TrEMBL record:
Function: Specifically methylates the uridine in position 2552 of 23S rRNA at the 2'-O position of the ribose in the fully assembled 50S ribosomal subunit.
Catalytic residues, chain numbering: K180 (proton acceptor)
Lineage: Bacteria, Pseudomonadati, Pseudomonadota, Alphaproteobacteria, Hyphomicrobiales
Coiled coil: none
Keywords: Cytoplasm, Methyltransferase, rRNA processing, S-adenosyl-L-methionine, Transferase
InterPro entries named among the record's database cross-references: RNA_methyltr_RlmE, RNA_MeTrfase_FtsJ_dom, rRNA-MeTfrase_E, SAM-dependent_MTases_sf
Keyword Transmembrane: no
One record GO biological process: methylation
Positions of S-adenosyl-L-methionine binding: G77, W79, D100, D116, D140
Record field: compositional bias (Acidic residues): 237-249
Protein name (Swiss-Prot/TrEMBL): Ribosomal RNA large subunit methyltransferase E
Pfam families (alphabetical): FtsJ
Domain of life, per lineage: Bacteria
Length: 249
């Protein structure tokens, strides 16, 4: 596996060209000089993100053969590649289904739906294609960046919240949920929701994340089940009613 010390050889510089933004040139230089990007090409992975999934799974042991996996924000397919390999999903018995509004080249052992997860019909289409309740839900969804850090944070957090709701509604008991968030902390209400519905919560920044990146992943392990979720919601409503009523006397 590539590591931070594997970046050997000369540094590639991109020449300045008329009409090419400095930010675009810096991005291209970063891609050309990224050891994970080079290793991904050599290993046949779609992107450096595959190594994030490998590092997370090696540490937290998410995947087991035969599990059903949903990959939200699947493009370009790196996470689906790793998931399909580790749950032993094959073209004759596919157990990995991804979704993205960006077209994704076919991934061996996975079905990728080309549609927006925020579409009303998308969750049902995912479950229909998978054919059973998922054991693992992955979300690498992130909103297109605006350059305004707070705005980008809020937009990606919204996607994390939508993915969380989907996970709580569809996961098998004992299932796991992994989603992209941003450094600066998972919002308090969302973190509290995850803690009520999963046994353990971890904030994870895999080594394959770029040094300057503010991305962070939240891993919720061992879903407690929907009956537990309903009980938790009833307790929350009761607590809110008590707060609105105010003290007696």
């Amino acid at each position: 596996m590539a590591g931070r010390g594997d970046d050997r050889g000369m540094t590639v510089r991109v020449k300045k060209k008329h009409g090419v933004k400095a930010s675009s040139r810096r991005w291209l230089e970063r891609q050309l000089n990224d050891p994970y990007v080079r290793r991904a090409k050599a290993d046949g992975y779609r992107s450096r993100a595959a190594y994030k999934m490998i590092e997370i799974d090696d540490r937290y042991k998410l995947f087991k053969p035969g599990q059903a996996v949903v990959d939200l924000g699947a493009a370009p397919g790196g996470w689906s590649q790793i998931a399909a390999d580790r749950v032993k999903s094959t073209k004759d018995n596919i157990s990995v289904v991804g979704i993205d509004y960006i077209a994704v080249e076919p991934v061996a052992g996975a079905t990728i739906l080309e549609m927006d997860f925020l579409d009303e019909d998308a969750p049902d289409k995912l479950l229909e294609t998978l054919g059973r309740a998922p054991d693992i839900i992955l979300s690498d969804m992130a909103a297109p960046t605006t350059g305004h850090r707070r705005t980008d944070h809020l937009r990606t957090m919204y996607l994390c919240e939508v993915a969380t709701d989907f996970a709580i509604r569809t996961l098998k008991p004992g299932g796991h949920f992994l989603a992209k968030t941003f450094q600066g902390g998972t919002e308090g209400d969302l973190l509290a929701l995850l803690k009520r519905n999963f046994t353990t919560i971890h904030h994870v920044k895999p080594p394959a994340s770029r040094d300057g990146s503010v991305e962070l992943y939240i891993l919720a392990k061992s879903f407690k089940g929907r009956s537990h979720s309903r009980e938790a919601r009833v307790e929350d409503v009761a607590a809110e009613d008590d707060e609105e009523a105010g003290p007696l006397g």
